[in-house]
């Protein structure tokens, strides 16, 4: 636990790692650092030719990653974390920067270039300290890089392709992961092995020691210098306190937190101030759960106001222009746009606001895989049901101004259409994936608009599909378009799933939301399906996440 005095300086700070890399997360966790993970959305499109050296490119990318996370978190909560850590690892050979391969051929070109040669691995790191000054985010950035030399063995074509086909190269800088199968390709490493894995822990701890080094009292002995990570005694000046005096109990407490034995009292500057494990960790996940509804409501409000439609058609636009298009106040619109940008739904630049690719695809009403109908449904009846969740728990049944449209015969036509629009958008999206692994025999999916059914018959020429749904639903289903061509092998049969006889089929897929059905009604349905099944036939009940049981 020699790192405890160093890592301990961050113990009571809110630290964020601006990376989704499981390798960086593991390295820092093993060192005892407590932190949150907030992956950066910085688009790594810096012009490499504008940097004098590969390491300068890695450091700048790491800095931009960390700054993007700090700014986004501040915009979201109006408070920033204390420290944001950004990192970027690149491979360079002959002055050429190799990042992550885009496909297998790109991986082959990278690994062929490295075969039998030495190359450099640069990991740039940025440590961003965040402050609030005059209501604005202020940052101080400390940055460094670590260079490690790696030598590859001569690689045969067979070994190259065997490694590429394993899939490991595709998310690794330079096309290999030294900590896993890629280690078989390496002849030797000269320098920091962990830097090649993704994070130079040794240099990081030295940088922390430098950043948190307290001023030395006049005449105090200078600590011994080390080339590697120093022992506890080397960091005797890391105390936040200034001045003389001693506090042996506190010093011993800090040493015990590091796993070391208490020593005799020392001067005040040797005190390991703050390096204890007495404080419970910040319940970040719990706080995010409490605050999460605000982000959902911002997304739903932006959909309702057609923000994504306006920006898809005319963006980028300034906040005032968007406000004019959606007939809203400029101030309110600007705040909503900033929140959407912080959530990663919009891009913000000097030219104004524009949709991200995801927003144009899924949140614009005319998007190719639009979930706009699902957003409207959640913003309407579902939001109303959850608003009165406490009342529903007390009374044992959902309470909304109008029943949730899962039984269309109890709802207005508009409410049923709203539910069908939500189901249709989600079905079109999931059909793109379900259709790839669907079954060959005929089967019976229950209800709605036929998006999944048409996709399946397109994928499987011998498939016959029957959609068994309420007459009210079938009457409205013709208003919905599907991505696949209409087929005579898709049939709509009116009926009530809970009481009417089921058409024969080899596979029954029950798409209705059954979690709110009473047990006797659900058992009755399953018994009738079982009675219709021949030996070898199947019933598919799609998996329901735990939150689904709160819908009604």
CATH class (first level) name of the domain at 3-212: Alpha Beta
The name of the CATH architecture of the domain at 3-212 is Alpha-Beta Complex
Taking the sheet with the most strands, its summary is: 7 strands, mixed
How helix-rich are the residues, as a percent range? 25-40%
Estimated structural class: alpha/beta
Terminal residue distance: 52 Å
Radius of gyration (Å): 30 Å
Low-confidence stretches: 220-278, 405-409, 435-447, 543-549
Shape: globular
Report the portion of residues in β strands: 15-25%
Could you tell me the mean pLDDT? Answer: 76
Tell me the CATH topology of the domain at 3-212.
Maf protein
Summary of the model, kept short:
The protein is of the alpha/beta class. The chain has helices spanning 4-7, 22-30, 54-77, 104-114, 157-165, 193-197, 201-211, 248-257, 284-304, 307-314, 319-326, 330-342, 357-362, 372-387, 389-395, 413-434, 451-459, 471-477, 519-532; strands spanning 15-17, 36-37, 83-93, 96-98, 118-133, 136-152, 186-190, 346-349, 352-355, 443-445, 465-469, 490-494, 507-509, 538-540.
């Amino acid at each position: 636990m020699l790192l405890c005095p160093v890592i301990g300086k961050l113990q009571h700070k809110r630290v964020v790692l601006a990376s989704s890399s499981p390798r960086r997360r593991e390295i820092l966790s093993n060192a005892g650092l407590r932190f949150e993970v907030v992956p950066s959305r910085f688009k790594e499109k810096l012009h490499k030719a504008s940097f004098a050296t590969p390491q300068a490119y890695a450091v700048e990318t790491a800095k931009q990653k960390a700054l993007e996370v700090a700014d986004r978190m501040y915009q979201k909560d109006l408070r920033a974390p204390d420290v944001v850590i950004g990192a970027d690892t690149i491979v360079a050979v002959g002055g050429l920067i190799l990042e992550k391969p885009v496909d297998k051929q790109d991986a082959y070109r990278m690994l062929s270039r490295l075969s039998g040669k030495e190359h450099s691995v640069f990991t740039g790191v940025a440590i961003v300290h965040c402050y609030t000054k005059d209501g604005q985010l202020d940052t101080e950035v400390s940055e460094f890089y670590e260079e490690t030399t790696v030598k590859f063995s001569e690689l045969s074509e067979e070994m190259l392709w065997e490694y590429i086909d394993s899939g490991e190269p595709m998310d690794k800088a330079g096309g290999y992961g030294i900590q896993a199968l890629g280690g078989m390709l390496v002849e030797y490493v000269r320098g920091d092995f962990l830097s090649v894995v993704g994070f130079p822990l040794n240099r990081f701890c030295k940088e922390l020691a430098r950043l948190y080094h307290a001023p030395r009292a006049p005449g105090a002995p200078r600590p011994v210098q080390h080339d590697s990570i120093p022992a506890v005694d080397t960091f005797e000046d890391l105390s936040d306190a200034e001045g003389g005096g001693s506090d042996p109990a506190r010093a011993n407490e800090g040493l015990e937190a590091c796993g070391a034995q208490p020593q005799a009292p020392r001067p005040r500057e040797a005190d390991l101030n703050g390096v204890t494990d007495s404080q419970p960790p910040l319940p970040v996940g719990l706080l995010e759960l409490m605050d999460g509804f605000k982000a959902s409501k911002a997304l739903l409000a932006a959909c309702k106001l057609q923000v994504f439609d306006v920006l898809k058609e005319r963006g980028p636009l300034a906040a005032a222009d968007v406000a004019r298009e959606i007939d809203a106040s400029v101030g309110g619109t600007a705040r909503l746009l900033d929140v959407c940008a912080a959530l990663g739904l919009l891009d913000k630049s000097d030219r104004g606001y524009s949709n991200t690719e995801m927003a144009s695809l899924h949140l614009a009403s005319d998007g190719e895989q639009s979930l706009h109908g699902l957003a409207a449904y959640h913003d309407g009846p579902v939001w109303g049901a959850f608003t009165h969740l406490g009342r529903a728990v007390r009374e044992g049944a959902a309470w909304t101004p109008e029943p949730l449209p899962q039984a269309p015969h109890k709802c207005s036509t508009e409410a049923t259409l709203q539910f069908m629009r939500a189901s249709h958008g989600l079905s079109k999206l999931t059909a793109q994936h379900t259709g790839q692994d669907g079954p060959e025999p005929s089967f019976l999916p229950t209800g709605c608009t036929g998006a999944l059914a048409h996709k399946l018959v397109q994928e499987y020429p011998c498939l016959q599909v029957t959609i068994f749904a309420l007459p009210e639903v079938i009457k409205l289903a013709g208003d919905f378009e599907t991505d696949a061509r209409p087929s005579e092998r898709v049939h709509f049969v009116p009926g009530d799933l809970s009481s009417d006889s089921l058409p024969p089929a080899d596979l029954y897929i029950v798409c209705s939301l059954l979690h709110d059905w009473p047990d006797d009604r659900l058992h009755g349905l399953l018994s009738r399906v079982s009675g219709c099944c021949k030996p070898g036939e199947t019933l598919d009940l799609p998996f329901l996440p735990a939150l689904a049981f709160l819908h009604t």
